[in-house]
Amino acid sequence: MAIVTPSLQNVVVCGAGAFGRNHLRIYRDLEYSGLPVHLAAIVESATDRAASLEKEWGVPVYTSVEECLQTTKVQAASVCVPTVDHYRTAAAFLRQGVDVLVEKPVTATLEEAEDLVRLARENGRILQVGHLERFNPAVMAVQQFLDRPMFFEVHRLSVFSPRSLDVDVVLDLMIHDLDIVLTLAQSPVASIHAVGLPVLSPRVDIANVRVEFASGCVANFTASRVSTERVRKLRFFQPHQYVSIDYARQDLLLIDVARQPRSPEELAPALQVRKPSIAPAEPLRLEIESFLESVCTRRPPAVSGEDGRAALALALDINAAITAHSARAGLEHFRIGGTC
């Protein structure tokens, strides 16, 4: 993706944890590749890490957004702090005229999301939400084949990690797929049925959800962060076609029904399998390049604050449905510290 930029863009990464380090790496790679982007500073609240971060990245490290903006001219920022701090951090940048890429989920509450959208609008700033799978080459490639998908089956399974335990599996993992399906289905949500259980943490670690849309489209989601394997797949059916996306492999498979078979023997000839050629790429790099292009051209971001709010709203509604189901089913004994 070409970045059109009239001048050097100073960027700051706020939060130098596991994912923040990936943002740091990509900004530095873009800078070293000759693009007019400069990694100007890091904001990291853990004061004991400041010295090592300064030595590693060769930029000043500040403990707060306010301290950073007092001494550094910044045009854009990546917000990679824990979800509970997204609103406070992103709002501080937006109020000072800085464009923001905030990791998903956009905020912890809908009220915070709506206020970030308002701040971006009132200050004329770019607010992009880090729904990474939008930039997966397989997801980008499938857009040209869309023809009213009516049934989705989505699986996102991961092995347990202590990372991101400040949120449940719906806000941690499933929200990626909620954003994608909302984008592909293009219809309001009509009903939600959900079940979820805590397994290794106090929050829900595995969940299964059925969402029906006003159009009649149905989507089944399964997300787990306590699996023995990693699976990241989305499949959907639309008229005369089955589509399968493997996020991890960046593969797209299309199976077309050429004609209605008259007998089981004619089934195989009626199916035509295609696997479009897809150039592999790192989704996070594409996401950051897209963000910087919006910063420079002032075009709306590929994943807007409103998109982030919509995914968050659905995730929170799913969590409410999980809570209601747990109460009906008497699942309190599944909780950490509960009675077995």
Overview of this structure, please?
It is a single chain. With 340 residues, the protein is of the alpha/beta class. It folds into two domains: 9-130 and 284-303, 3-Layer(aba) Sandwich (Rossmann fold); 134-278 and 315-329, Dihydrodipicolinate Reductase, domain 2 (2-Layer Sandwich). 35% of the residues lie in helices and 25% in strands. The chain contains ten helices and 14 strands. It has helices at 18-32, 50-57, 65-71, 86-95, 110-122, 137-142, 169-185, 267-270, 283-297, 305-329, and strands spanning 9-14, 37-43, 61-62, 76-79, 99-103, 127-130, 151-157, 189-197, 206-213, 218-224, 231-238, 241-246, 251-257, 271-274. It has an eight-stranded mixed beta sheet with strand order 8-9-10-7-11-12-13-14. Strands 3-2-1-4-5-6 form a six-stranded parallel beta sheet, sandwiched between helices. The longest helix is centred in the last third of the chain and has 25 residues, at 305-329.
Distance between the termini: 54 Å
Largest sheet: 8 strands, mixed
Q: Helix/strand/pairing class, anyone?
A: alpha/beta
Low-confidence stretches: none
What is the CATH first-level class name of the largest domain?
Alpha Beta
Percent helix range: 25-40%
| Counted beta strands | 14
Strand proportion, as a percent range, falls in 15-25%
Which features characterize this protein?
eight-stranded mixed sheet; 340 residues; 10 helices; 2 domains; Rossmann fold; 35% helix; alpha/beta; Dihydrodipicolinate Reductase, domain 2
Write a short abstract of this structure:
The chain has 340 residues and is of the alpha/beta class. The chain contains ten helices and 14 strands. 35% of the residues lie in helices and 25% in strands.
